[in-house]
């Protein structure tokens, strides 16, 4: 006969209590509570994922996210820091350098300690340049909540910025940022009715471009003596733009000047060494050993005249040079490369400078207000050697300029044309020269033809 057992009925918690001692029951209850807490209460990690952040960390830049002053890596998938992060607010303050401002003044206005300033200045040569600030420059301080300098940006101008950033070990590293403007060719043509400056200004040329053009032709045209009404010129130069706004002009690329019926042309060429100079379309240098005048476009008040009546002594005394009337303080240039053989003062000459050029030539500059060079010093063509004045026997501010060849006085207005020019483009670079300059000259000619025709119609 087979025995059949009844299935065990479920045991209720209340019934079990009767079978367990009190201590065992308390232990079992505590375990049950722990189990419930583990299931229903989230862990700190889960809580961090569930709670929305007050800021969108993925949208913050690197200057804002920091952990112990180190940048925080951000997961692009989750938009949260990969490490436990403390987000510190970085305050940005823009200051403009005012007249009389020192770096110390700017740090005080930014509420950054002097210790931070000295630490920055001691970080290298580039940082030491901060001690020489120019009014109008802009500084951007980025400081953390503890007042510690995180970075400093100096905007020198619209194209050049230097940034100092705190790195490991609290040192500062600098980065130079240079923006390149867009360049486009521009053309101007004008006819002279009264003066070169008036004609150039009316055509839309800046003073600096007018002076640059005069410098290009300074060995061929005396702009104080040779200019005539009806002379014409056309110029192609670079205009520079930044973010669609014109910020300045680049160099002259090609230029043509018709003076007293004779046309001179020049084109800018950058040689294989990276040096830029102006040449004729055939590759001959526009630069002679001497420029025609030692000052920028001025008026001749007295010409070379061996039988001139002296304005002070009222007697016949040779005038062995050319006098250029100009405002006091006008820069005076050396007309050629050479060595200063005399720089001093005498009662008749006032402040003077004499320069030896090679073995045969000497130039003299008299009645200067100030002398900028000393005896024995080497000088380059167009280097400033002094300023116009009226020292010595002079009736007013002007420069007396003399030119000697083998010890004999020659007329400065004519002697330069008889002297050799500088070196031309070497034959080894002629192909390169043609490839670079012919398109420039062709563009200038294409513009010049219709512009001259329109000018003739208006006349």
Task: Please provide a written account of the structure.
With 459 residues, this protein is of the alpha+beta class. It has four domains: 54-84, no CATH class; 91-178, Nuclear Transport Factor 2, Chain: A (Roll), CATH 3.10.450.350; 182-287 and 425-459, Roll (Nuclear Transport Factor 2, Chain: A), CATH 3.10.450; 299-418, Glucose Permease (Domain IIA), CATH 2.70.70. Helices cover 22% and strands 31% of the residues. The chain is built from ten helices and 22 strands. The chain has helices at residues 13-19, 22-40, 44-50, 103-109, 114-121, 125-128, 196-202, 207-216, 412-415, 430-458, and strands at residues 66-67, 70-71, 91-96, 138-143, 149-155, 160-166, 172-178, 182-191, 232-242, 245-259, 262-270, 276-279, 299-302, 322-325, 331-333, 338-346, 350-357, 361-371, 378-379, 384-388, 398-405, 408-410. Strands 13, 14, 15, 16, 17, 18, 19, 20, 21 and 22 form a ten-stranded antiparallel β-sheet that branches. The protein starts with 12 loop residues before the first helix and ends with a helix. Residues 1-20 and 43-87 have low confidence and may be disordered. Residues 318-412 form the M23ase beta-sheet core domain. Its cofactor is Zn(2+). Residues 190-306 form the Csd3-like second N-terminal domain. Its main location: other.
């Amino acid at each position: 006969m087979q025995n059949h057992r009844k299935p065990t009925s479920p045991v209720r918690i209340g019934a079990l209590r009767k079978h367990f001692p009190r201590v065992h029951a308390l232990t079992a209850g505590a375990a049950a509570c722990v189990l419930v807490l583990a299931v229903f209460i989230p862990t700190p990690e889960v809580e961090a994922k569930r709670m929305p952040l007050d800021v969108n960390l993925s949208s913050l830049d690197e200057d804002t996210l920091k952990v112990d002053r180190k940048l925080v890596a951000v997961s692009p998938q989750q938009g949260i820091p990969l490490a436990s992060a403390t987000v510190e607010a970085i305050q940005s303050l823009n200051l403009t350098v005012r007249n009389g401002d020192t770096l110390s003044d700017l740090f005080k206005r930014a509420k950054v300690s002097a210790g931070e300033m000295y630490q920055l200045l001691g970080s290298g040569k580039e940082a030491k340049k901060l001690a020489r600030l120019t009014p109008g420059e802009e500084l951007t301080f980025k400081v953390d909540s503890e007042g510690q300098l995180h970075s400093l940006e100096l905007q020198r101008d619209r194209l050049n910025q230097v940034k100092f950033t705190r790195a490991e070990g609290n040192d500062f590293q600098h980065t130079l940022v240079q923006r390149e403007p867009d360049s486009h060719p521009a053309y101007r043509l004008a006819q002279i009715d009264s003066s070169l400056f008036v004609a150039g200004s009316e055509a839309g040329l800046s003073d600096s471009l007018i002076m640059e053009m005069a410098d290009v032709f300074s060995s061929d045209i005396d702009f104080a003596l040779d200019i005539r009404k009806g002379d014409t010129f056309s110029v192609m130069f670079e205009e520079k733009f930044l973010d669609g706004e014109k910020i300045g002009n680049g160099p002259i690329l090609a230029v043509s000047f018709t003076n007293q019926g004779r046309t001179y042309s020049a084109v800018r060429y950058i040689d294989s060494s990276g040096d830029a100079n102006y040449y004729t379309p055939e590759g001959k240098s526009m630069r002679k050993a001497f420029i025609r005048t030692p000052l920028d476009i001025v008026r001749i008040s007295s010409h070379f005249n061996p039988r001139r009546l002296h304005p002070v002594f009222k007697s016949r005394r040779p005038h062995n040079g050319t006098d250029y009337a100009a405002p006091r303080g006008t820069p005076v240039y050396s007309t050629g490369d050479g060595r200063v053989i005399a720089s001093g003062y005498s009662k008749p000459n006032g402040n003077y400078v004499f320069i030896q050029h090679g073995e045969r030539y000497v130039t003299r500059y008299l009645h200067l207000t100030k002398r900028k060079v000393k005896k024995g010093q080497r000088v380059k063509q167009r280097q400033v050697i002094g300023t116009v004045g009226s020292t010595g026997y002079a009736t007013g501010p002007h420069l007396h300029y003399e030119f000697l060849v083998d010890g004999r006085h020659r007329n400065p207005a004519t002697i330069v044309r008889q002297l050799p020019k500088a070196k031309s483009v070497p034959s080894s670079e002629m192909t390169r020269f043609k490839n670079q300059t012919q398109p420039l000259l062709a563009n200038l000619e294409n513009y010049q033809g219709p512009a001259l025709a329109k000018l003739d119609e208006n006349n």
